[in-house]
Amino acid sequence: MSGYSHRKRVQLTFNHQEADRIPIDLMGNASMLLDDTYIRLRDYLGLSPIPPVRSGTTANYYDDRILEFLDIDFRRIFLKKNPNNKTAVREDGIFTDAWGIGFLKLGTTVNAVEHPLSNVETVEEVDSYNWPKAKDMFITYGLKEEARHMYENTDYTLVARNPISEGFLERPSYLMGMEKFYITLLTNPAVVKCIIKHLLEIYKDVYGMFLDSVGPYVQMVEVGDDLGGRDNLLISPEMYREFIKPAEIELYSLIHRKAPGAALFHHTDGAVFELIPDLIEAGMNVLNPVQTSAKGMDAHRLKNTYGNSIVFHGGVENIEGDVSAAEIASEVKQRIDTLSPGGGYVLTCCNHMIDVKPENIISLFHTAREYGQYNK
Predict the structure, then answer these.
(1) In the chain, what are the domain boundaries?
(2) Looking at the predicted structure, is the pLDDT value of residue 50 above 90?
(3) Is the CB of residue 314 less than 8 Å from the CB of residue 348?
(4) pLDDT digit string, tens, across residues 276-293
(5) Does CATH number 1.10.760.10 belong to domain 6-85+116-371?
(6) Who's near 350: CB < 8 A, 6+ residues apart?
């Protein structure tokens, strides 16, 4: 039996050291199971139904029983939704969140279809918008006690689960509409900077209240903002550095102050190789989801260039649909061979599991546990 606790295994990995095996993760930011996939796995394992932890998304379940079965090294702590923060659902299926953004679920995706700032043209209009307050969206009742109990009575790596899925690039795209937002970046940068200023203050309040409760007990804090597509960045590096990076630096500095023992996990899809030094400078420690199929994101290139600076989290693609367990095992082994030497790699899926067979999920993590052993 291994002499490594889950927490110790991850700590060594974060320090770029080899433990007994690579850590594995599931049901975090960008590694959830879409509801149908979750339910199939739950039933395959003979588990009874449980209530969802959230609503309004396509991945609403977090199940400790599955994490225990798969021997996952991490456990999430969720910031609790204020009971008064109710989502309004119309007869046409559009639901509006606390930000005033209208969403519609279509198949396996949830799309923003109504954009409350789509017509703003001035800073004054942005300032006068009814911006949500952290205390109206979330509560922390009992959270400190929950985090302390988990820290003292389990050996898992505890994670402050991302309470805000969209960052300083994605949220304005939802508020304005993507086309309007990208045009405004060029034609009216003062308006964009004003929107980001308001977001920063709200995000600081949200993470502040969250980490005031759980900061002493967590070993990782999640943030997210997709900065890249499959073939390129969504905005130029110069625009990122002008508009997005200053807000990241300020928010990430607050997170590191309030959770001084925690690594900062940043989720971004896509071809972001050239922004990784900026993300490191902003305060990122863990990069997710390591989309190696994107342009310039070859796993060997990532490991050789940044392997001593950050931890890679994710990396396993090509698991959806009619794929064999052998093919998935081969993918897992490739990622381990490339990213795990010397520590610094946590294996999980590259983005949410949309339509993955239960037996393939089990095979994925079984292979990771067995093949991912150091000194084997």
Answers:
(1) 6-85+116-371
(2) yes
(3) yes
(4) 999 999 999 999 999 999
(5) no
(6) 30, 289, 290, 291, 292, 293, 314, 315, 316, 317
